[in-house]
Amino acid sequence: MRSGRIFDLKRFAIHDGPGIRTTVFFKGCPLSCPWCHNPEGRSPDRELFLRSTRCTSCGACLSACPVGALRRTDGTVEIDRARCVVTGNCADVCPTGALEIVGREVTVSGLLSTLERDRPFYDSSGGGVSVSGGEPLAQADFLIELLAACRDRRLRTTVDTSGYAPREVVDEVVGLADLFLYDLKLIDPVAHRRLTGVDNEPILENLRALASRGAAVVVRIPVVPGLTDALDNIEGIARFVASSGIRYPVDLLPYHRAGVDKFARLGIACDVESTEVPTDETMARLASVFREYKLHVMVGGRPYGED
User: Fold this and answer.
1) Is 68 exposed, middle or buried (0-12, 13-18, 19+ CB in 10 A)?
2) Cα–Cα distance, 61 to 127 (Å, whole number)
3) Degrees (nearest 5) of the Cα angle 207, 208, 213?
4) Contacts for 187-192 with beta carbons within 8 Å, 24 or more apart?
5) Which residues, in sequence order, are CB contacts of 165 under 8 Å at separation 6+?
6) What would the pLDDT profile of 259-282 be if each residue is shown by its tens digit?
7) What's the rounded Cα separation, in Å, for the pair 298 and 307?
8) What tens digit of pLDDT does each residue of 149-177 get?
């Protein structure tokens, strides 16, 4: 069976599809959204997390590093990431867990043995297996084999995706997944490229492809103040979804600050560090736009208003 790289596996998840789920987080994403709440999923490579608040500056990691990529500074350690080769030696000897390797190889068979443990919870709640990231479509062969294996075992599957992938990948995955959680961030192509680093045309075309195949989809929109919450952006997305041929439900996801600390752990500047969460009034105003287009709208996974 194929192997792939993941950075987390979350059991008893309740926000990644219906019911109780186990979510597999794939490593690697072609987008670079500044509001990303899983920046450790961006790079396909293994990376080193540093939780400086846990560091006691004991020095054990310094002698363990084979390339001298660590040094003491201000009561903690500092990583020379250009020099670091991510052997994991430093994390192995760290007594407090301040250093952690993010990213590990797994096989489909190995994952299945873990996923099967929670089958009673899936069956009792209507849940199943979710794949997220990062971007699961970026590891297409591994994803397809995992989804096929889950289908063979009657495990329901949900794919949480940005939709940025070759059309042939989407065409193959659509026959294997039970549900797609499909992100639409920005409707304007210039703004989309500026903020995410990629064009949105493949994303929009792939959503049309899912609609033409009758796939089950929930469109999810991250609401990030000053970046994605402009009325013209929201109206443009509502208009696009309403014209897709299938009136997909829409879930507005309020920005949260869970990713800010993770950027720091990776030594990456966070462009939204000072961004606050959107107000309830903002979320209600944006939800009303989708109501005007006769779309079922949710806010943070909860229904808004009445159909």
Assistant:
1) exposed
2) 42
3) 95
4) 187/233, 187/236, 187/237, 187/240, 188/232, 188/233, 188/236, 191/233
5) 135, 137, 138, 140, 202, 206
6) 999 999 999 999 999 999 999 999
7) 11
8) 999 999 999 999 999 999 999 999 999 99
* pLDDT given at position 307: 43
Going by the DSSP 8-state scheme, the letter that residue 279 receives in this structure is P
Structure tokens at 281: 């009034």
Q: Cα dist. 104→28, 85, 116, 263, 303 in Å?
A: 12, 15, 20, 19, 37
The CB density around residue 45, as the number of other CB atoms within 10 Å, is 11
Q: How many residues does the chain have?
A: 307
Query: What's at 114, amino acid-wise?
Result: T
- Between CA 258 and CA 121 the distance in angstroms is 27
Task: Say whether pLDDT at 306 is over 60.
Answer: no
SS3 48: strand
Give Dmax (Cα) for the chain: 63
**H helices of the chain, where?**
60-64, 89-93, 108-115, 119-125, 140-152, 167-173, 189-196, 201-212, 231-242, 260-265, 280-292
Residues 192-223: tens digit of each pLDDT: 999 999 999 999 999 999 999 999 999 999 99
137 Cβ contact partners less than 8 Å away, ≥ 6 residues apart = 143, 159, 161, 162, 163, 164, 165, 169, 170, 173
Give the whole-angstrom CA distance, residue 113 versus residue 90.
30
- Contact, 29 vs 196, CB < 8 A? no
Alpha-carbon span 281 to 288, nearest angstrom: 11
Q: How many Å apart are CA 40 and CA 103, to the nearest integer? A: 8
Spatial CA neighbour of 232 closest among 299, 294, 297, 286: 286
Q: Which residues contact 185 (CB under 8 A, 6 or more apart)?
A: 33, 162, 192, 195, 196, 200, 221, 222, 228
